[in-house]
Write a structure and sequence with these properties.
Blueprint (H helix, E strand, L loop, with lengths): L6 H22 L5 H7 L4 H29 L1 H19 L8 H33 L4 H30 L2 H21 L17 H5 L2 H28 L6 H28 L3 H19 L11 H32 L6 H63 L17 H9 L8 E6 L10 E6 L1
Antiparallel strand pairs: 1-2
Helix pairs in contact: 1-4, 1-5, 1-6, 1-7, 3-5, 3-13, 4-5, 4-7, 5-13, 6-7, 6-10, 6-12, 9-12, 9-13, 10-12, 11-12, 11-13, 12-13
Length: 468
């Protein structure tokens, strides 16, 4: 696979890896010391807690808007503007310690985090869309590799931020890491193509976010993404109080929080490769849902499981959660793009923007709901019973996807993995013949003709699309 990448694709991969890592570092570095600074100004945990939550809520609101207008704004402009905005607001966040009034401190914190979330959302939506365009044969694997870089940044951010805070105070980590992201933004501006050859004919742009979600398979994918992000948010909010009886040291506790993220980053490329080359992504989603269910049954432990809470069981559960969580996220991203094209959306940047905006928005919604609901459930019914809610959410994911698979099998018997859509995926004559004539080599399929400049530079003078 790697040997067939063009120079432009390799440069795009490198640029995205750097940008994803630096962006994640900037977004996550506040965690170790911002609460302490906020309390020194007189802020309550509720106030500064919502400063963190408003980030995800903003991403949920603006991502569908970015997805709808990506083809008008341009993916390169949105990508670079998003990184530049994230970097600038990160630097500005480092000067909040100069504000002594509590209300002003919290107000500026909210304002900066909202703008930072708007930039980060634009960067993510554009990057996911460019991935789908530049790597049509390896969407899942490429997405998974970049998610690994983002996950590493989320791990490094708090660690490096804490070290820089001890070295030079509150401002140093924000200014130094924000400048690092600005340098990455300059690099991406020089390397990424402009995608100026995208068509401007409005008649081609028929899709909308609402019509996208109305497709049953994509609606299910959106629900699975929300359930997955709720599960990670649930653990972020409640894992530490759940582990207190084990009397772990701060270092040990930090490692527990890294476990599921590290496992996700390790296995994500595997899920991407499987979804691209071997198996229907719906099977991967079902597998991931059952693995997440197992993880939460163990980490509770569930009320019906007569075992005590022990460190080995918690470690196993967190590793399982990272594995299943990654399977669900990567598979839903891969399948949503294919389902959109299969259901009549144009195979171009406008559709990639819609799907990427949907994915980013629904993930942010779950990331906002997860910690909020987890805290209330923890106080109301306790950790053990609260985990049952997450188990039920993922049981619904598994059941709905199995039902969808059965319905798809009845409509298209014998179709295990998605049929490849455009010519860059149909590399052999037998594949092209199947697309042109149908399975029986007699019945023609519905065909539309589009200009090849939509896609790669290796396209022929015209390009054909075949949709079941």
């Amino acid at each position: 696979m790697a040997g067939r990448y063009t120079r432009q694709q390799w440069l795009t991969l490198i640029v995205f890896a750097i940008a994803d890592f630096c962006s994640a570092v900037c977004v996550s570095l506040q965690a170790p010391f911002y609460p302490m600074m906020a309390e020194s100004k007189g802020a309550t945990p509720t106030q500064y807690g919502f400063v963190f939550g408003i980030f995800e809520l903003t991403v949920f609101i603006v991502s569908p808007i970015y997805g709808n207008y990506l083809y008008k704004i341009g993916p390169k402009f949105m990508f670079n503007a998003g990184i530049f905005t994230t970097a600038t607001t990160c630097i500005l966040f480092g000067f909040l310690d100069r504000i002594n009034n509590c209300n002003a401190f919290i107000g500026f914190s909210f304002a900066i985090r909202i703008v930072e979330a708007m930039g980060n959302s634009g960067f993510l939506t554009a990057s996911f869309s460019i991935i789908a365009k530049e790597f049509p044969e390896n969407v899942g694997a490429t997405f998974a590799c970049l998610e690994t870089c983002f996950g590493l940044g989320m791990i490094v951010g708090p660690t490096l931020g804490g070290a820089l805070f001890e070295l030079g105070g509150y401002t140093l980590p924000f200014v130094s890491l924000g400048c690092m992201l600005l340098a990455a933004a300059s690099f991406t501006y020089c390397i990424l193509p402009s995608y100026s050859d995208e068509p401007k004919n409005e008649e081609v742009k028929q899709g909308s976010m609402l019509s996208l979600i109305k497709i049953p398979a994509i609606g299910l994918a959106a629900y699975a993404i929300i359930a997955s992000s709720i599960s990670i948010g649930f653990l972020q909010a409640t894992l530490e109080p759940h582990l207190r009886p084990l009397s772990l040291s701060p270092f040990q506790l930090g490692l527990m929080f890294v476990l599921n993220g590290a496992t996700y980053g390790f296995f994500a490329p595997v899920w991407g490769f499987l979804c691209d080359k071997i198996i229907n992504p719906r099977f991967v989603v079902i597998f991931g849902a059952f693995v997440v269910m197992t993880a939460f049954i163990l980490i509770g432990p569930a009320p019906f499981l007569p075992i005590p809470t022990t460190l080995p069981i918690c470690i196993i559960a967190l590793v399982l959660h990272g594995t299943g969580f990654g399977a669900e996220l990567v598979a839903t991203f891969t399948s949503a793009h294919r389902d959109a094209v299969k259901n009549g959306f144009p195979d171009d940047i406008s559709t990639y923007g819609l799907v990427s905006g949907m994915w980013t928005s629904t993930f942010a919604l779950g990331a906002f709901i997860g910690p909020s609901a987890a805290g209330a459930l923890f106080d109301w019914v306790g950790f053990s019973w609260a985990t049952v809610v997450v188990v039920v959410l993922h049981l619904v994911v598994a059941v709905l996807f199995m039902f969808n698979l059965c319905c798809e099998g009845q409509r298209r018997p014998g179709s295990g993995i998605y049929t490849k859509i455009h010519h860059s995926l149909a590399q052999t004559d037998p594949e092209k013949a199947t697309l042109i004539t149908g399975a029986d080599n007699k019945t023609p399929l519905i065909r539309t003709v589009s200009d090849s400049s939509y896609f790669s530079a290796t396209s022929d003078s015209s390009e054909e699309y075949y949709v079941y």
